[in-house]
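Researcher: I'd like a structural prediction for the single chain below. Treat it as a standalone chain; there are no partners to consider.
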Amino acid sequence: MIRVQLSGQLKEWSSGMSRVDVESGPDVISVVRALDARYPGLGGRIVDDQERIRPHVNVFVNSENSKELGRERAQVRDGDTVHILPAVSGG
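Model: Treating it as a single chain, here is the predicted structure.
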């Protein structure tokens, strides 16, 4: 199982859940697909039509930024925690 921590407005798309466990494949995109299967529309808030992480979304595998691990193809393993954080802006 992969534990997924959702922050910000993403919780609106997951029935208010900030923590979700999913059985998932080998990488971040598989986690996103599993989330979207459970909560339709959530995946589109995280990745674009080409399954690339949206520029305003930060994804971490445990404490490492997915940008440094291969972005969408960053590997995940059973027991990992994936943190998905939409960027916060405003004034």
